[in-house]
Every structure is written in C-alpha cells, then in structure tokens.
Design brief:
Layout lengths: L10 H8 L5 H21 L2 H8 L4 H30 L1
Length: 89
C-alpha cells in the first residue's frame, strides 16, 4: 500500500505550523553586520592605505629595502666570482 500526501503551503506557513522560530529578522540583522564589515575591510584595501601600512616611513623605508636588496645581490655576485675562480684553477 502506498500513500502520498501533498501539502501546498509557503515556508512561513510550514514554520508556523511546526512551531519553528521566525529567522527572517535575525538573518537580516546578520547580513547588515556582514555588509558593514565587508565595506570597512574594502576601505582598508585602498592602494594608498596599503602603501602606508606596508611602508610606514614612506620613501625612506623603500630606499632602505632597495639598499638591502642591492647589497645582497652584490654579495652574491662576489661570492659567485670567488667560487668561479677556484673552480677554474
């Protein structure tokens, strides 16, 4: 024996019939908070803000980083020249 029961109702009517809470207002409030946080974080992703965060000293910090890179490259080149000389002999 097979019995089929079709119920035609909206989700709100089913929730009320089963005694489940109304979650619409809570979901709206949570989504508003998520949107506020997302917009605040997007404002922090502004290129100027990122530049100020990464290089707080401005161009002085950038120059120091550049000098550090150049000194590492120059040191590596000198080390390569010395090993190249010993291998040739």
């Amino acid at each position: 024996m097979k019995i089929n029961v079709d119920i035609d109702c909206t989700p709100e009517e089913a929730r009320a019939f089963l005694g489940l809470p109304e979650v619409g207002p809570m979901q709206t409030a949570v989504m508003e908070k998520v949107q506020e946080r997302l917009m605040a974080n997007l404002a922090a992703m502004d290129p100027e803000t990122l530049f100020e965060t990464w290089l707080p000293a401005g161009l002085q910090g950038l120059e120091q980083i550049q000098k550090a890179f150049w000194s590492q490259f120059a040191g590596g080149q000198r080390a390569g020249d010395k090993t190249g000389d010993t291998e040739k002999e």
